[in-house]
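G., before I forget:
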Amino acid sequence: MAELAIPPQEESVVEGSYLENLNGRKGITAWIFSTDHKRIGILYLIALFSFFSVGVILGILLRLEMLSPGGKLFSPQAYNALFTLHGVVMIFLFVIPGIPVTLGNFFLPIQIGAKDVAFPRLNLLSWYLYVIGSIVILTALFWRGLPDTGWTFYVPYSLRTTTGVTIAVFGVFIVGFSSILTGLNFLTTIHRLRAPGMTWFKMPLFVWALYATAWVQIIATPVLAITLLLIVISRVFGLGIFSAAAGGDPVLYQHLFWIYSHPAVYIMILPPMGIVSEIIATFTHRTIFGYKAIAMSSLAIAFIGYLVWGHHMFVAGMSQQADFIFSFLTFLVAIPSGIKVFNWVASMYKGSIDPQPPFLYVMAFMVLFCIGGLSGLVLGSLATDVHLTATYFVVAHFHYIIFGGGVFIFFGALHYWLPKMFGRMYNKKIASWALVDMFMGFNLLYFPMFVMGYEGMPRRYFTYLPQFETMQRISVVGSWILVAGLIVMFVNLIHGSMKGPRVGNNPWGGTTLEWSTPSPPPHENFETEPVVTQEPYYHEEALTK
Amino acid sequence: MSKTITSGHHEAPTSYGIYVLIWLALMSLTAITAVVAGIDLAAFTLVIALLIAVVKSSLVVNVFMRVKYDDKIFKIFIAIAGGTLTVIFLLTFADVYFRR
């Protein structure tokens, strides 16, 4: 499709774009009452990155405590509360809603050629539920004190502590409904609102990833909801379901919690995997290798991801037979994950690689995700897990997967789609240097944790033995370097979205539908309904080589 | 006022009487669940409770949610969700069984 003329620089809002207010509404009301999926996506972005900032500040404080042994900055109780809040904010308010509610909301309908999601009002309700749930969680700050249980709210301690577990858990319960409704909306949208010609195997791989994620959101999240409700009922009414003294089973809590929370890891990582495919196809200027294998591997990961939760519980008192079954199933997840990585590498082979910032983020992801994934196999093995459980090794592993894998691609996706969302470009050189800084900071921060964990440093301790001092200090310095990169990246992105130079509709040469519509997109996404006739990653130049 | 409800485009109408009967069946099954929970039937307590739950959810899904009259795709959706739940139950119970 031919590019439309680039609007003049001085225009703050492109006429006819979704950034232009409709129905006489102005200011914030034009946004918080809008059912346009793109505006809701932006609302989520603002909310999520506000909480991300809170989570980062808490993380920095937790690291700062480790500058020297002896707990000079916080009391043990305060340290417990801080790592709990860090976990709850990062997991439930940032990473789990993450890419689906923000970029998924913005780009899913556009990528399948729809005007909006299937249930626009439900979409807005999901955002309100997310905000209300978040406020309820933060209420725990001012009412009975922050929970000190860790983000997993394990019994029996979560039933005994006098801190504000009940209110925080109830907040997570509300946020869960937002997740379920978003999943329901996406599933219906993908089934019902695809443009003419958009068959299942012409869908972009980001849509496939969101489809698999939506299934997990719908099936797994209710399990968490009922589990957390049981905690509330146990605390308020003395229900004994998780209490051994009352004939209940504390291990059952861990089963129920991880039945949700392990699939939740795939809610966090599947959408980034979809974005990796998008970025690789665009910046190698060739079709994606093994399209169907990547699409099916998303579904396979989502399905097998339901069956591996027990690997979080190898030392929790589960039966040995169950340990063996869950360890075996855990190794199976590596197969579809490996399929994706090998296909991405094959897609780059003989491609015309253009190392723009989004592509560099994918390269960083490849390294970090592979380290995280392979260290996951160490933890999935029964013998090694016994040694490494509840050590820094686990902390390093999941930060490599969730932060290094998921969040780095979230950042890469913002660099990829920001020109489409706002019709403006950021400073690419600054973006690349910010990534280099973050990559170095990230590895300095988390890699020493693998070593410390292997040597026996337990997680969640407010102090440590002197032998860990050097490694702890390297890690603390790494956190500062990482945060410096984060600040530069965000300033560059925010400045670019507001003041950056105007760009055309397709600055990267992408082939999926969002690149055929104006930047920023109009209110109903397309001036005329698109008709899809080609594969999603059809590059003419690649075919003529 | 009509004595039937027809919300979809290709389903048979369901009378209010059927809804009332289903509601009574659900209430009765709930009562049976509560009673059985108080009787020591060893491992069968759980089996009976789960069987009753399956019957109750089938009634709700088929009649109140009207899946019985819906397209095949929705039945497949329900089957996938139900299948996943069954596997989750089996894995959890396997742990409890072998722990003894």
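The interface with chain A takes residues 73, 80-81, 84-85, 87-88, 91-92, 94-99 of chain B (CB under 8 Å). The helical segments of chain B are 16-37, 44-64, 72-99.

More on Monday.
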